[in-house]
Structure formats: C-alpha cells, structure tokens
C-alpha cells in the first residue's frame, strides 16, 4: 500500500512559510514504531514539510552499575536512527552480552536487566556527560548527533523521576512492596498484579527545556499508542505538561494502545487495571478525557475491531474514528499517522481547539 501524498494535518491557521509542527508524547517501543510510520508518511514525495518534536517518557529510567539508562529515549533514538534490534524492538542491532555475563559472574546485582555491550557505550557517554554537569536534555541532543533520528528528541524532564509499581508481598509487614518499573516489567514480566503505580519524583520535576514550548507551539499534538499509564501518563504528570496540552491551540489526537480489549504487546492492561480503568479503546479514551471536559483529547482513533466503541467515545465529547491500528509494517503505521493527522484536521476545522 502506498500513502497518497497530500498535505498532512491542519493547515488553515498555519503560516505557509514554515513547516507543520507536530509534537508527539512518546514512550518506548509503541511510540517509536508509531514515529517511524509518521516519518515514513512525511517522507513521501509531495508531503507538506513538517518538523516533529518528541517528548519522551523518562519515568522508566534506571541507574544500573553506576550508569544512567534511559530505555524510552534510547528506543526512540535507536529506532529512528536505524540502530534498533528489529525483532526485540529495543536495544542495538548485532548486540552481544559479554559485559552482562561478566557482571553476573561477579555476582553483581541486578542480573535481570538486558544491558548489551553496544548499548553500554551509550550509557557510558550519557553518564559521563551527566557527571560533567550537562542536563539530560543536552546529553540527549548530543547522543542524537550520532543517531540523527529525524526528530527533535526531548526528555520530558531533566530531573530524576522513577516509576515504581506496588505489588503484593506477604513477607512485608504491610503486605506490599514497591519495585522499580523495570524490575516489574523485565524481571517479573508484569505477571503479578500491580496494586498501584507510584511515579517517584514526578511532583517535583520540571519540564525539560523546550517541552512546554513544543506543546504550546505545535500545529498538532499526537498521543501515539504508547502505554497510557507509565508512558503518556507519566509525561502528562510532569507539572505544567497536562495544563499545556489542555490549553494548546493545536488539536490533540490520540491512537488507542488497546485493540479488542488487549494491549497488543507490553503491560498496559495490568496497569490500567491497577488504576481501575476499563481495558478497552473507549476505556483509555475516557481515562484521557475530552479536552472540552477537563481532559486532554479532541480526537481518538480506535481499531476497526473496536468500531463498537466509537459512539461511546463520541458521547464523551471526543471525535472518534475506527481505522486499522496494528503497526505491522511502515505502510500500515504510516496510514495510522495519516488517519491521526486527518482527524486532527477535522477537529481543527470544527474549532475544537
Ligand atoms: P514501551 O515504553 O516500550 O512500553 O512503549 P510505549 O509505552 O511507547 O508503547 C507500549 C504500548 O504500545 C503497549 O502497551 C501497547 O498497548 C501498544 N502497542 C504496541 N504495539 C501496538 C500496535 O501494533 N498497535 C497498537 N494500537 N498499539 C500497540
Ligand atoms: Ca517505557
């Protein structure tokens, strides 16, 4: 399938002498795959010139063996920079694991995190720059000089935020224990119920330089099919970001990460359940809420399998369409991006913003 080359997105209020500004709030694998499709669409001959700014979640960041690891930033950077392991969806191509094996041989914990040899170089450079006093946003820009992802990649915040997941633990006096998000996901494979999600440090974090401007100055704001709790939810939780999205002049359109009641891949279902949110396309839309009613969305795309959710989403004040939402290849994902920009155009015309 080829994507017809026509101007993407709302153009009525945009000055024709500058590129269309698209701002995307992204997690790791789901967000990065969507961005690949968006760039594929924007690269089609005849497409309107556009600039994409990505605000990435850093709540999954973790310090390991003295190194700062930023999984979502790196997944976006490697994916768009053509350095990602396609099959795994994270980490580097042609990766080897000697350092991880050697650390395990010393009995150094944690041993469950997939720290590849090539990937390690990124964390060494990042940590060295942080130690020298550069903020994470500057470090990210420096790393992107190598990877040239084709987007402006910003961490949501330069400050440390760490998402923790509360699980049952009969050995604790309280009966519960909080784990780092990575331990819940990588070691426990999200196979025990999550009782609560605690973004440690989020309340005190400030948006990184450029984040609020990217939202306020956008022509379109997109919420990709990233995890609505620990990816997009964490970004929106940085003080000032949700408010910026709510008052942005641009239309805000999201794509459902839940298809036919399943999160496709990942662990969104477990975390939505912890928040008491229905695991459905309409449930996630309701969780984000209509901008007209205090939420963050003007428009929402659900998969064609969830056609039955469309009326419910519309009734909650959110424009909604059903289109295929499975990111099987670049063309399919580009078509999703096209549908998101078209819906943004439609809600922009209706003066939803
Ligand atoms: P993470 O940080 O690596 O977990 O990645 P994100 O938060 O950006 O995205 C993870 C979410 O992407 C998962 O929870 C899924 O719900 C969603 N997802 C993954 N693949 C697909 C797909 O093909 N289609 C849709 N609609 N959602 C997907
Ligand atoms: Ca993540």
Report on the architecture of this protein:
The protein has 353 residues and is an alpha/beta fold. It folds into 3 domains: 185 residues, Rossmann fold; 82 residues, CofD-like domain (Helicase, Ruva Protein, domain 3, Orthogonal Bundle); 39 residues, no CATH class. The protein is 36% helix and 16% strand. Strands 5-2-1-9-10-11-12 form a 7-stranded parallel sheet, sandwiched between helices. A 3-stranded antiparallel sheet has the order 7-6-8. Strands 3-4 form a two-stranded antiparallel sheet. The two termini are 32 Å apart. The N terminus is likely disordered. The site of guanosine-5'-diphosphate (GDP) has 23 residues, from helix 1 and helix 2.
State the share of residues found in helices, binned by percent. Answer: 25-40%
**Strand elements, count:** 12
CATH topology (fold) name of the largest domain: Rossmann fold
* SS-derived structural category: alpha/beta
